[in-house]
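Question: Now follow the chain.
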Amino acid sequence: MLLACCLLYDRVDVVGVVLSALTLVVTAFGVWTTWRASAAMDDGAAARQLSKAVVHAGSMSPRVLGGDRVVADVTYRFRPCAHARGAALPLRPAGRLDGLVADYQVLRPRRLVVTGQPGAGKSVLARSFVAELNKARADGDPVPVLIALGDWEREESFRDWVVRHLVRDYGRSWKRARQLVDAGLVLPVIDGLDEMDRTEVPLAESRAQSALDALAGYQEGLEPAPLVLTCRTDLYDALEASGRPMLDAARVEIDPVSAEAAAGFLSRRAGAAYRQAAWAPVLDELRAHPQGMLARSLSTPWRLVLVATAYEQANDPGELLTCTTREEVGDTLLGHFIPSSVSAAAEAWSRCASEDVHVWLGTLARGLQEQGGGTTDLVLPELARSPRAAWARRLYALLVGACAMVPALILLSCLGGDPVVWGMSAVLVVVGSIGWLHLRPAGISLWRRADFTLPPWGSPLWGVGIRLACSGRGRWAVGLTALWPVLILWRSVAPHPLGGVGDWASAVTMLFTPMLAVVLVTARCLGSAAVGPSGWPRAGLFFALLLLWPATVEIFRSRTAGLGAVYLLTAVGSLYLALCGPMAMYACWLLVNCRRLPFRLSRFLEWSRAAGLIRVTGAAYQFRHREFQEWLTRHPVPARPTPTAHPPTRTTTP
């Protein structure tokens, strides 16, 4: 009998060892097969994948165009170059927004500079250009990618800068991004040359001039590499006159919106259609004085959208007739912009007072101003590294020190004791110390997938990611990797004779393992561009729950919550800080700024995007317009209580 029991236990141990070894083999083989499938992708397939990511990332909120089907009529004209090295122009330019792609495709070389006055619609035109060119793109053509130029520095080569943005903004790996750039399959559409410097910086020493020099040297072999650049008219005129322009490029100038076109745009809006008596004085002034102050103040698509938003539902547009300067018109419009956008939004955040929204956006705008260099990109992972985030970094350093201190004390107290405890403590000290490296801009990280993001819960992107994971070259790797959680669950719940431990309580702690496998595969297939910049905090929360859930269950299962519980939580905390240091620093930054900003900042920014206050470029949020950002830095809090934007009685649209 004793011999039979021993043989039974030996068999159980053997089965357990076989299952554990099989788990490791399947996991390693699945990861290796996935890597091979990814590495085998050719340039054409990689370009098509990037094109899909750009399409997902380039969607604009309807509020960006004013929340109506009526859009301003934007026209342009080619301007002669101030030098002899210009691109060959089309014989019959279209001159309208819907013909820009056709005009660009006949340029030789394909280098285009788009200029216009502030608010002329350069950024919206660049986004529309990227979307339309992606639709007309054939296999072998470069993929247009919209990139904001604000974070480029002189020390970084332009090619490396493009690669970095493909990784950060569009979820490409470093290897894949370099492969695409080296193959000439990326067309940079660069926005914001005029937003790189402060006004007092001399032109010869400006970052804009250095960027223009770098763009002039951006080549494919001996030929100029294709690119599109947007800039304010007066700055680009000064850069051309400096004697160091960008050669081999054509230049188009966006025309101002005429008074008649502005009046036609406003009269066709739904607000003017239902409030004709209120709008009549403004429309009459535009038509009667086409060169007047009001017509010149409303000569850009941005200002027209501001007018439509400010007076769509309420407020009297006739107050614009009392303004005497263009600056006064801008301040009046921007004063109504936030309350009107809040009232027009239908999401949960619209229940917040417009004054709170104003204060939160003003805090973010002041933070960007303090970073200097004309910064316009609001990137969530980088908030904790801003100059104002010193206390957040100190809190993170305190957490790292606390999580590394407990294993260090146990290590010192166990010298010559249990070798298992000694070894685990030494490992945790090393893992916890790695968290300190996240405080450095280029520190070592155990978790290298910086592009890992999660779609919003309930988003149809989850279904898209699962379909992508279950089809294509990586489907066999996905199937093999899916066996890993199955084997782990079997090891937890199976009875002893079949190689399991028969512990159902432990199986509860392992329920997140299949979820992790599905989420990892889904997120890897979607990429950060499809998910958007708000998916990064969700990934951090997911990993926190993933690590803390089993530890919490084990603590509640134990009869004593003494040193063992503290040691377990410390181990989990050290691992999380080592794996997801930037996410932990972002949480510290939110805690430090909880009185000045909503704790669910990413959700607020997504609502602001839907409301038309914020726009998205890749993995970065940006204020709707640079004028709006600068106005918020001057007015971080509402100057006076704003009138409600809800009309007493609202006529429903038939």
The longest helix spans residues 2-39.
